[in-house]
Every structure is written in C-alpha cells, then in structure tokens.
Amino acid sequence: MFNPQSPRVTRSDVAREAGTSVAVVSYVINNGPRPVAEATKQRVLDAIKKTGYRPNGIARALASGTTRTYGLVVPNISNPFISSMAHALQREAFTTGQVLLLGDAGDSRQREFELINNLLHRQVDGLLYTSVDRHPYIELIQASGTPFVMLDSVDPSQQVCAIRVDERGAAFQATQHLIEHGHRDIAIICGPLDMLNTQDRVNGWRDALLQAGLTVRDEWIFSTPYTRPGGYQAAQQMLKGRLPQAVFATNELQAFGCLRAMAEHHLTAPKDLALICFNGTIESEFNVPSLTTVRQPVDVMAKTAIEMLKNWTGEPTIREFNFSLQIGESCGCSSSKKSYLPT
After folding, report:
1. Residues 219, 234: Cα–Cα separation, whole Å
2. 3-state class of 67 per DSSP?
C-alpha cells in the first residue's frame, strides 16, 4: 500500500495504487496518445487523488516542447501604467492556459539583461518586453529563437513584432488641447532625452506649437526621470523662472510630482498652471484635480500581444492602436466632459 508520508510521489506509485502500468497512467495524465477505458481511467484518477501525485512540469515541458509560460520584462512595475499593462497581460495569458513570469528591471539596464537571460534559460514560450531605455536587447532574444513582442515603439530597422500607439501624435494632440484653451506659453516635462519615447513626445509637443505659430522655447524643456521625484524636481526648476501658462508632462507620475511642487508654491491647476499628461491610468481620475491625460487602450493591447505570441510566425508585425484623451479638470475643462479620440 502507498505510504502518503513518502517525500516524492512518482507515476510508479500511482500505477501500483491503481493496479495498472506506468504507461496507462501516462496516457491518462496526457490524455493520450492511446485511449483508456473509463473504469481504468477512473481508477488512475482516484489513485492520483489518494497519493497526491503532481506531474513533473519540467519533464512534461521537455516532452511537449512547451513550458506554458511567458516572460514579461518591464522597466519598473511601480509605474501605474506599467502595472496596469502587466495586470492585463497576466489576465490574457491565463485565459490561454499560460503562466506569466514577471521580471522587474527596477530601471537598471544590467538587471534587465540578467532577467532576459534568466527567462530564456527557463525556456519560456515567449517574451513580452519593454526596455528600460528603449534600446532593447533584441539580438540576444533573436539568437535564442524565442518568440517575442515589444510593448512600445522601436527602431523600424529592427524588424520585430511590436504593439504601440503613435506617441508623437498623442503628444501633439495633448499639446493642441492646451492651445485650444488659449494657452500660448506651454512647457514640457519629459523623460531622459536619449530615450526614443521621450524624443517622440517632445517632437509631438514641438509639432503642435509650430503648427499654431507659437515659439518653441528650449528652456521650457525639462528633462527628468519618469518618476514622481523627477516631476517634482523638474517643476521646482521650472517655477524658478518665468512661469508658463501650461505644461505637458510626458507621464502620469511626473504630473503627480509637478502638482506637489506647485502646491508648495501655493499654485493650483488649472487656475495658475494648466496641466495635461501622457499614459494616464485610473489614478488620474481620482486625483485632485482630476488629470486630463492621454490614455492607451491597455486591455485591447494586452489581448493583441498575447495573440501575437500564441500565433507566432516570426514575421515582423507592428500593431498600432488609437489613443484617447481623457478629459479631467487639470487642463481647465469641466470634469464631466467626455473623452474623445484624436481626429
């Protein structure tokens, strides 16, 4: 009789308990390749329950050629936008029977490299990836032959699969909205200037100003990390000089930091300084004032990214999604105004 105190249960233990061969146990567990009579199958299932047997996932992965896991590498999971995307990806992966392994680089390029190597060594079925500085380790992943999808814009010459929104167009739309409020002096709090997404967002801000015949003031470009402290420090620097009428913060955390700095100077949005930001989440809706922000369709993007991994062919594919402008109070609009898509 099987001893339930045994440290490790094997298929042989299950076979002895069920009175069958190990091969029959394997057929039941793997649902094939040979059929098993219902009565025998039930004896095996009862034996599995009694013994507490758990299939060896690694062995099954080696046999089937799949680990049923995806890897996700992100710059910093504490960023609300990134965490909302990770949550949506996890949910979509689970619906397809996959487990999502999270790798948080903590804004470290070296840690990002190590995480990717670790996930590749685990033989994940695919990678979902956003680089710390938008200069990803694409060649490393390609050399492994592992399917992967980038979760942001990359250099088109890389010839990879990616999902994205038009960040330059989104920044243009956000800045244009401030111009429609009558603002002419508009500053930007942006990310590090060597990052590709920063360049897209700064160029969109610049495009809107030039189209409206306004002056682009380089001294009103405040480059800082995509963090609350970064936004706070950039705003403190901005408030030392001539005050603009409005500011475009290129992510939600920077906008929160900016509002903190404004409060310390007894300034409010939108009365003293109109504010709009990029990559807003539900946090923007519950801020005081609520933030007007560019929103990405996170749920749809996550579903598409998982589908791209599941149906991987190796053919470079770029899927671009529409963004929306969620209207809040920080720009000067009524909070009851509905969000709208760009024209």
Report:
1. 12
2. coil
